[in-house]
Every structure is written in C-alpha cells, then in structure tokens.
C-alpha cells in the first residue's frame, strides 16, 4: 500500500486544516523498527478516512532528551522553534505514538506558549474501537501481555486505553507481575537510552523481559519506541527474541483489522 501523507504546509496552501497533526517524533522518523509503527498508524487513519497531516521536514525533536539530560537551554531552543511552527499553522489537536513526545507537548510546551489538545495514539485507537469504527477479523484468541510505559502510565495516568485496545481486539490480556502504578521501567527514560547503563547486578530491561517470559505469552504489546528498543534487547539477551513477538498497539490493531 502506497502512503501519500500531506504536510501541514500542503493543507495550508489550500486554506484548509486537518483534524489532527500527527507528531511523528525522532524514533518514528529515523528508527527502522519504529518506522513500521508510523506506517501502521498512518494506514489505520487513512483506512478510516481520518484527516491528518505531518510537519515533515518542519518537525524537530521536542527537546525531551535535552531537558532530561540537563540541557535546559537546548530544550527551550527546540521547544520554542517547534511552537513557532505549530502556532503558525494554527494547530489545535496533536496525536503522537511516542509517550515522551506526548508528555513534552502536553505538559511542558504550555509554559512556553504552546497550548494544544495532545492525545496519545493509544487513546485515539481505543476511542475508535469503542465507537465500532474498526472492523475486526475473526481470529483465534491469543494471550497478549502489555508493558506500561513510564511516561504514559505513571507520568500521565493512562492505563486503561491500551488495555481497552487489547480487550477490544478480543485478545486475552495478561498482566505482568509489575504493572500499572507499579510498572517496571524499561530502562530508557530520562535520556538513559542514549548512554550505557551504570554498573549493577542486572540491566533493567533484562529484568523486565524476564517478567514477560514468566507470563507465558508469545506476544507483548507496548506503546513507546524507547520501550520497544529496550524490551527487544532484553528478550534478545534471554534468547527469546524468536519466541516472543514485540508489537506496538498500532501494529496489533492493524494485524486484527479486516
């Protein structure tokens, strides 16, 4: 399926605005694995005829890694540059598949003049499922574990939408030992994904992956590009990468759509 996604500049040239700006994020743009998530989500939106656009080359990093690593000056430079572009296009609603982008756009941009309705893609997909807009194939029931992202769960209190998706797809939801408010971090937050871990008895992603293995599932769903990198790494270290499939919620929805 060929994707033809319009930019905000193209919409503006027609004097129109889409319902959503899809904030792709650095991982969704450049990481080979998460590009597949970006594509899956866009294909879902297009199949449901939901109007959306991207910024394309006008999109820059939200500044989350800079702020988390202590470079406040760089964060504010990146944020204010993005806000200028978003406000120029009169953006009202933003959807993103990255909890880090979600948290920054929603909670940290307002203090710099960027006020938008920001939703995570799990929230939009859950709403579309609940409204009956996503038609499902008949599939054998399978057990799916869900890994709570820190920035989505404990950071923003979004626990139900991802679970509503899994159950709405007629899957058996398997809760991990550490879940919801007691979820276990993948080890990538706070800009840790860009550095080597400190010394310790076990890497956090290895410990988290063991909980996934112990759950007995063959598929784990998540909703964060950082988590995808770390959980896959943990499963690789356990030698379980061929036995347990790691998928984003958008991919899970697409796999089950008619």
From TrEMBL:
Domain Cysteine-rich: start-end pairs: 21-106, 144-232
Keywords assigned by UniProt, alphabetized: 4Fe-4S, Iron, Iron-sulfur, Metal-binding, Oxidoreductase
Lineage: superkingdom: Bacteria
Coiled coil: none
InterPro entries tied to this protein: Cys_rich_dom (IPR004017), HdrC_iron-sulfur_subunit (IPR051460)
Protein name: (Fe-S)-binding protein
Organism: Aquirufa beregesia
